[in-house]
Amino acid sequence: MKAVVSCIEQLRLKLDRHRKDDLKEYPTRTIFIDPMLQALGWDVRDPEDVQLEYPTVDGKSVDYAPKVNKRPVLFIEAKALNDPLTDVKAITQVVGYAANAGVEWCILTNGVTYRVYRSTEKAEAPDKLLFEVSINPKAGEGKSTQQIAEQLNRFSRDSMENGILNTLGIHVFTAGKIRRALDKLFTDPPSQLIKIIRSAITDDSIKPNQIKEILPGIWLSSPIAVAPAHEVGSKKVPSRQTKRTKTEKEYGEEHHLEGVPKEVVELYHTLDRYCLDLAMQGISKQHRLLYIAYRFDNKIFASIHVQKGGLRVYVKLDFAEIDNALSNVRNVKNIGHWGVGDVEIAVDNGGQLLEAKRLIKQSFDRNRQIMKLGS
Description:
By secondary structure, the protein is α+β, with helices and mostly antiparallel strands.
């Protein structure tokens, strides 16, 4: 990991100068991508380790094909330093190359930002994005160099040998599929599900049509539910969210999650569920332009700012009162931020969820206690 941190620091010193030079693809590879792959344990000078210009089925080639046991485990396509990496054709191309070759993972990079896709996922190419990470300090979203190195290390040689990326991808994409399947099942329950529920209830007085009518409302009031509201039959079933204003309708959940990597989407859904489940009644959320606020009895206790590299969670606590704060927690009382609260928790991976939940709960309890004292 030290080699990756050192590499990031060295490349950052070159970044501004080469951006002004409008560095083209080949020098971008030489100056930025090759050193990073070396730091991650891939020997770009050894074709047994990394094959350059790996041939594809259409007679073209992929820039890098890192190998484990002499078989490609990654396809990496390089772009010029200032390329935004948003061209759908380029994304589709590299994802298609990987899928056709039976390679699970592929990366599109401009030497600064690395966008990691799971080629075998059944979705449109842009929606196969698992995560992205940037070494640009101006786009680092408050991450430390160590945190950025940890994300890059997910596709290091050691990590690929140990299946780290596979494990992460399976978990993240599977969680999303399960959530969507549950949403479909509970909002339009099939007869088999109704029979199972009726059998579990062990009360013959409850009829199948009653279960079918009530179940969507129960599901949509659950913090696990995907959508804010659905039309079920001829009735509109509301969610547990409070009524939005005209302005808030313009900034729904889709506004915050559009184009966001799947890992970050799943992190958001986990904390969203947690916040809404802290009390049976009285909790609502509001979608603002740059953050989502969670309220209890109309008082904000937490807010989430969704970024492409992770979440920034803000809670209403005094930083000095936090016991054993971890490295992903900082005092932002005198620092500009998009959210309500003086304490920021960075959540860039599943390992940081526990600390976020702990401080959200602490903020919730503190605000509830203040309200009790004021009543």
